[in-house]
Write a structure and sequence with these properties.
Layout: E1 5-7, E2 10-11, E3 14-16, E4 23-25, E5 28-29, E6 45-47, E7 60-65, E8 71-76, E9 85-91, E10 103-110, E11 112-114, E12 117-123, E13 135-142, E14 146-147, E15 154-155, E16 157-158, E17 160-162, H1 173-178, E18 186-189, E19 197-200, E20 205-207, E21 212-214, E22 223-226, E23 233-237, E24 245-247, E25 250-252, E26 257-261, E27 266-269, E28 278-279, E29 284-286, E30 290-294, E31 297-298, E32 313-315, E33 319-323, E34 332-333, E35 340-344, E36 348-352, E37 355-356, E38 369-373, E39 379-381, E40 390-391, E41 396-400, E42 408-410, E43 413-414, E44 427-431, E45 437-439, E46 448-449, E47 454-459, E48 466-468, E49 471-472, E50 488-493, E51 501-504, E52 507-509, E53 518-519, E54 527-532, E55 540-543, E56 546-548, E57 551-552, E58 577-582, E59 586-589, E60 592-594, E61 612-614, E62 621-625, E63 634-637, E64 640-642, E65 649-653, E66 662-665, E67 668-669, E68 693-697, E69 710-713, E70 716-717, E71 725-729, E72 731-734, E73 737-740, E74 744-750, E75 753-754, E76 765-766, E77 777-778, E78 788-791, E79 794-799, ...
Length: 952
C-alpha cells in the first residue's frame, strides 16, 4: 500500500490495514462513529496489525497546564527513542470504547527523552481554550512508520504555585503539594522578594499523588528546604506518587533524608539549566519503588565547597538509576571523612557516570567511602566510557561488605580519571563479600585502578570473587599510574582482638582470551596472597585462589593473549607475585599461579592460564611460607617468568616435613615466550638477574622427612644470571639475632631442561636484521653459573628416583651452563648419618635431549665467546674429537698418532660385508657410524652384526 498523507479535513473514520508511512495530523474528528458487524468497536483512527510499523497508541501519564494557560506539559509512559511527534487534541466528551464526540487539533510537539522520561511541551493556541479538567488525547507519529491510533484521554491539571516560605498555610509548599489533586499536578514557585529563599519545615511533607515540584520556576533565586535538624525526612514520595519529579531545589539539615522515595518512576534532578537538586547532609533515601537521580550535587555546591556531611544517596529497597549516559546525567557526590557517598544495602542500583569524592575540576571532596555495597545485584559503571564513574580521594573508593554478593564493578576510573590525573584513594576497592565481579569478560568492562595505596584488596572471608580484565597501575597505552603498595591483594589477615579470616576460591584473571589483568608500576608486589595470624585463637587461611592469564610487568603482544612487546615495560617495585604466610596456624595452600600446560613437560610449558611475569624489580614469583600448615601444595604452573631483577621463582619455607609446600612445573623461566631464546632480537637478555628458581630451607625443625616438600618438574630454566636451580639454607639477620634454616631440604628436581632451549637443543640463530634465519649470530641459552646448585643441603633428588643405569629419556637435561652442570657445596653427611644425602640420578649432563650430542659439539663455547662471556671448554671444532669417533680416528691417522685400525661406513650392507669378511679377526674395537654425531663401539664382530640386523 502506498503511503497516505491526510490533513486539514473533516472525516468520520480512518482505517489503515497495511503498509507504513501513513500519516494523519491536523484533522478535526466530528464523531460519533457508529459500529457495525465487521467493526463492533470503531476508532476515529484504526491501525491494523503490522500496519505503520506496528506502532501503538501513546499512553499519556499527565497533562499539566501552566497557570497562564499558554503551555501544556505532557508525560508519556515508556521511553520513546528516535524522532517522534505527539499530535495533541482537545476532546469535548469522555471516551467510550475509543469513540469521541469531537476531537479538535491543538498542535504537535516533538517528543523528547531525558532523565529516563519521555515528555512533550505544547504551546497552546488561543482557541479553543484549554483549562483544568479538559480532556486531552493524542496520536504519535514516527517518520517512515506513520501515525498511531488515539490514546486514551487524560484530564489536564492546573499547576499550583508556592508564593511564600512558610511551613504551612496558603501559598506554602506544603499547601501547594496538598492541593496536587487531579486538578493540580505541577507545583511552581513565585515567591515575592529577593532570595535566596529557605522553607523551614516543621514536619515531613507526604506526597501521595503524582506531582512535579519545579524549583526552576522561581525566577530570581534558589530555594532551600530546611528543618534545622528537627525533622527526620523532608519530602516523602509515598505510594500513589508514581511519576513524580523533584528538580531545582536544595535540601539540608534532615536527620533521616532530605527526600525519601517509596513510589515508582520518580525523577530527582535534571540536566536542564537549574534543574539539579543540591543535598547537604543525608540526601536521598530510596526504600522502595524506583527512581532516577540525575545531574544532582550531594554534599557539595556548584563552586566545590563542601556542605554538611552525611550519606549522599541511600538505597535500601526498590531500584535506582544513579547518573546516566546522556548529557550531564551524572551526579557530583561528596564523601567526606567518615561519611559515605553512595550506600546500597537493599534493592539494586545502576551507578554510572558520576563523580564521587572528586569534583569536575579534579579537586578533593572525599575522605570517606565513595560507594558502599552491602546488597546484591547492583552494577557500578559499565562497558563504555560514557558509563564510567570517577572515584577519587577516598579512604576506600568502593567497599563491598561481607554481606554483598553478585555485584559488578566495571569500566570505572578508580584513583584516576580519563586523563590519567592522580586522584588516589587509600584503597581502590575492598572486597569482603562473595561472588562479585571486578571488571568483566566483555570488551571495555575492565576498570582503570591507579594511584591508590592498594589497588584491590580481597580480605576477611571473601570467596568466589573474580577480578578480570582490569588495568592496575597503568592505562591502556602504558602510562605509569602505579598504586603505592600492592596492585591486587588477597589478604587473609586476622585481627589481633579476634576473628578468623578465610579468603578462598577467588580468581584473578582467567583462562579465556583477554580475561587477564594488566598489572604494572605498582610500588609493591603486582599480586600478593597473604595469610598472617595475629592471634593464636584464630584460624587464618588463604586457599584455592587462582591467578591466571595476567600480564604482570608485561604488555600484551596482541589483543587476544598475554605477552610482552619488550621485556620490561611495566616493572612493579616488588615481586610480580607474592605468596606469604606467617603464624603457627596459618594455612596458605592449594593456590594456583598459572594453569595446566596443554602438553606436560617443557615442550608444552606455557599453559592456557599462563601469567606473563616480566621485568619486575624483585623476584618474578616470591613464596614465603613461614609456619604454613596447609597440606596441599601451591602450584606454579605454565607461566613465563623472565627478565625480573632478582630470581625468577623464589620459595622460602619449611622443607623438612611431610607437608607439600609447592609444585613448580612447566614454566619458562628466563626465556622468551616461545622458549627458544634467552636474548631478544636486539641482543637484550630475557633471563632473570639471579637464579631461575631459588629454594631456601628456613625451618629449624627436626621433623622426619616425609613426601617431597617442593617439586620442580618440566620447566625450561635458561639464560638466568646465576644458576638454573639453587637449593640452599635460608639465613636472616635481624639486629643481633641470626636465623639459619636446617640443612635438610626435601626437594625433587626432575624432567627439566636447564641451560638449553625448549626443545632441549641449544640456541636460536639471529641474522643481522634480528630475524631467526640461519647464517647469523647464535646466542647462548645457558645459565650464567651452574645448572643446579645444592648449597649446604641434603635430601635433594636431582633426576629420577628409578634405579635405572641408562634412562631411555632424561630426567633432567643440564647442559650449556657457564658454570658446572651440578654443583654440591658443603660436607654435610657427617651430621646426617641416618638421613639420605643428595641423589643425582638419570640426568643428561652436557648433552642435548637426545643424550648423543654434547653441547660443546653444538658450539656453546663459541656462542659464549662471541658474546664476550667467560667460559672454559672446547670449541665446536675441538669438541669433534669427542663427539665424532670417525673424525677422531681420521685425525689421529692424519697426524700419525697411534690408534687401532678402523673403518667408517655409511652403508649398512657394506658394513655387514666387512664384518662377515673379518669375523674371526675382529677382536679390537669396531666403529660403526650412526645417524648424528656419535658412533657405536663393540669388542666383538657378532655384537656389531646383531646391532646392524636389529637397526637396519
Amino acid at each position: 500500500m502506498a503511503a497516505n498523507t491526510i490533513g486539514s479535513s473533516k472525516i468520520n473514520n480512518i482505517s489503515i490495514f497495511s503498509g507504513s508511512g501513513n500519516t494523519v495530523f491536523g484533522d478535526e474528528f466530528l464523531g460519533p462513529v457508529t459500529g457495525s458487524a465487521s467493526f463492533p468497536t470503531n476508532y476515529d483512527i484504526s491501525v491494523g496489525p503490522g500496519a505503520n510499523g506496528g506502532i501503538v497508541a501513546p499512553v499519556l501519564t499527565y497533562a499539566s497546564l501552566s497557570p497562564d494557560g499558554k503551555t501544556l506539559n505532557l508525560g508519556l509512559a515508556g521511553l520513546v527513542t528516535g524522532t517522534a511527534n505527539l499530535e495533541v487534541y482537545l476532546s469535548t466528551a469522555a471516551s467510550s470504547g475509543g469513540i469521541q464526540a469531537q476531537r479538535t487539533f491543538l498542535g504537535e510537539a516533538p517528543i523528547t527523552t531525558s532523565n529516563g522520561l519521555s515528555t512533550a511541551v505544547l504551546s497552546l493556541p488561543s482557541s479553543p481554550p484549554v483549562s483544568a479538567d479538559s480532556q486531552i488525547v493524542a496520536t504519535e507519529t514516527i517518520p517512515v512508520e506513520g501515525t498511531s491510533e488515539f490514546s486514551a484521554p487524560i484530564t489536564s491539571y492546573l499547576a499550583t504555585t508556592v508564593t511564600n516560605t512558610n511551613a504551612g498555610g496558603p501559598g506554602s509548599l506544603a499547601s501547594a503539594i496538598a492541593a496536587a489533586t487531579p486538578a493540580s499536578h505541577t507545583v511552581s514557585f513565585a515567591i515575592a522578594g529577593t532570595g535566596p529563599f529557605t522553607i523551614k519545615l516543621a514536619s515531613s511533607i507526604l506526597v501521595t499523588l503524582p506531582v512535579v515540584i519545579d524549583g526552576t520556576t522561581e525566577p530570581t533565586a534558589t530555594i532551600t528546604i530546611d528543618s534545622g535538624g528537627t525533622v527526620a525526612n523532608g519530602l516523602v514520595l509515598a505510594a500513589g506518587s508514581d511519576g513524580s519529579v523533584v528538580e531545582g531545589l536544595q535540601f539540608q539539615s534532615f536527620t533521616g533524608a532530605g527526600l525519601v522515595v517509596e513510589s515508582s518512576n520518580v525523577t530527582i534532578g535534571g540536566t536542564s539549566a537549574g534543574a539539579a537538586d543540591v543535598f547537604s547532609g543525608n540526601g536521598v533515601l530510596i526504600s522502595g519503588g524506583s527512581a532516577a537521580i540525575v545531574g544532582d550535587r550531594f554534599g557539595v555546591d556548584a563552586f566545590g565547597n563542601l556542605l554538611g556531611s552525611g550519606t549522599g544517596i541511600m538505597v535500601t529497597g526498590g531500584s535506582a538509576t544513579i547518573g546516566g549516559t546522556t548529557g550531564a546525567d551524572g551526579n557530583t557526590i561528596a564523601s567526606p571523612k567518615g561519611q559515605v557517598g553512595v550506600s546500597i544495602s537493599g534493592g539494586t542500583a545502576l551507578v554510572e557516570a558520576n563523580l564521587i569524592g572528586v569534583d569536575a575540576l579534579g579537586q578533593s571532596i572525599g575522605g570517606g567511602t565513595g560507594i558502599l555495597l552491602s546488597g546484591t545485584g547492583s552494577q557500578i559503571g559499565g562497558s563504555t566510557t560514557a558509563e564510567a564513574n570517577t572515584i577519587g580521594f577516598n579512604a576506600t573508593g568502593i567497599s563491598i561488605s561481607g554481606n554483598a554478593s553478585s555485584n559488578t564493578v566495571s569500566g570505572n576510573e578508580i584513583g584516576t580519571n580519563s586523563n590519567g590525573v592522580k586522584l588516589g584513594n587509600s584503597i581502590g576497592i575492598v572486597i569482603l563479600g562473595s561472588n562479585n565481579m571486578i571488571g568483566g569478560s566483555s570488551a571495555g568492562s575492565g576498570n582503570t585502578i591507579g594511584f591508590n595505596g592498594t589497588g584491590v584488596s580481597i580480605s576477611g572471608n571473601a570467596s568466589n570473587n573474580v577480578v578480570q580484565q582490569n588495568l592496575v597501575g597503568t592505562d591502556s597505552i602504558g602510562h605509569a599510574l602505579g598504586n603505592v603498595g600492592v596492585g591486587i591483594l588477597i589478604d587473609a589477615t586476622d585481627a589481633a582482638t579476634g576473628g578468623s579470616a578465610s579468603v578462598h576460591n577467588n580468581t584473578i584473571g582467567g583462562t579465556a582470551s583477554g580475561a587477564g589483568n594488566t598489572i604494572g608500576f605498582n610500588g609493591g608486589a603486582g599480586i600478593a596472597i597473604e595469610a598472617v595470624q595475629n592471634s593464636s585463637l584464630n584460624t587464618v587461611s588463604a586457599s584455592n585462589n587462582l591467578v591466571q592469564g595476567n600480564d604482570i610487568g608485561g604488555v600484551p603482544s596482541d589483543s587476544t593473549s598475554p605477552g610482552p612487546l619488550v621485556p620490561s615495560p611495566y616493572p612493579n617495585g616488588g615481586p610480580g607475585i607474592l605468596l606469604m604466610a606467617q603464624g603457627p596456624k596459618v594455612d596458605l595452600f592449594d593456590n594456583t599461579i598459572g594453569g595446566p600446560a596443554t602438553v606436560t613437560g617443557p615442550a608444552g610449558a606455557l599453559g592456557v592460564g599462563a601469567n606473563f611475569i616480566l621485568g619486575n624489580q624483585r623476584d618474578g614469583i616470591a613464596v614465603s611460607l613461614a609456619g604454613a600448615a596447609g597440606s596441599l601444595a601451591n602450584t606454579i604452573e605454565g607461566n613465563l617468568v623472565s627478565h625480573n631483577q632478582f630470581n625468577g621463582i623464589h620459595l622460602v619455607g619449611d622443607l623438612t616435613g611431610a607437608t607439600a609446600l609447592g609444585t613448580i612445573s612447566d614454566n619458562l623461566v628466563g626465556t622468551n615466550p616461545s622458549g627458544t631464546a634467552t636474548y631478544d632480537s636486539n641482543g637484550d637478555p630475557w633471563g632473570n638477574g639471579l637464579s631461575g628458581i631459588l629454594i631456601e630451607e628456613s625451618s629449624t625443625s627436626t621433623n622426619t622427612l616425609g613426601g617431597t616438600a617442593v617439586s620442580v618438574t618440566g620447566n625450561v630454566l635458561s639464560g638466568n644470571g646465576l644458576s638454573g636451580v639453587t637449593v640452599q639454607r635460608y639465613t636472616s639477620t635481624s639486629g643481633s639475632t641470626t636465623i639459619t634454616g636446617t640443612s635438610t631440604a626435601k626437594v625433587g628436581i626432575s624432567g627439566n631442561i636447564i641451560g638449553l632451549d625448549r626443545t632441549g637443543k641449544n640456541s636460536i640463530v639471529y641474522n643481522s636484521a634480528g630475524g631467526t634465519t640461519t647464517g647469523g649470530v647464535a646466542l647462548p641459552m645457558g645459565n650464567a653459573l651452574d645448572g643446579v646448585l645444592l648449597d649446604n643441603v641434603v635430601g635433594v633428588v636431582v633426576g629420577s628416583t628409578l634405579d635405572s643405569i641408562v634412562p631411555t629419556t632424561p630426567s633432567n637435561v643440564i647442559s650449556g651452563n657457564l658454570g658446572r652442570g651440578i654443583e654440591i657445596r658443603g660436607d654435610l653427611l657427617s651430621s646426617h648419618s641416618t638421613s639420605p644425602g643428595n641423589t643425582i640420578q638419570g640426568n643428561f649432563i652436557g648433552t642435548d635431549i637426545s643424550g648423543e650430542v654434547p653441547v660443546q659439539a653444538a658450539g656453546v663455547v663459541d656462542h659464549f665467546r662471541m658474546r664476550k662471556l667467560r667460559i672454559f671448554g672446547p670449541t665446536r671444532a675441538a669438541a669433534r674429537l669427542e663427539s665424532s669417533k670417525a673424525y677422531a680416528k681420521e685425525f689421529m691417522q692424519r697426524h700419525g698418532i697411534p690408534t687401532a685400525g678402523h673403518r667408517t661406513f655409511t652403508d649398512p650392507a657394506a658394513a655387514h660385508a666387512y664384518i662377515d669378511e673379518r669375523a674371526c679377526a675382529l677382536e679390537a674395537l669396531t666403529c660403526i657410524k650412526r645417524a648424528g654425531a656419535d658412533a657405536i663401539l663393540t669388542y666383538y664382530a657378532l655384537d656389531a652384526a646383531r646391532w646392524l640386523r636389529e637397526s637396519h
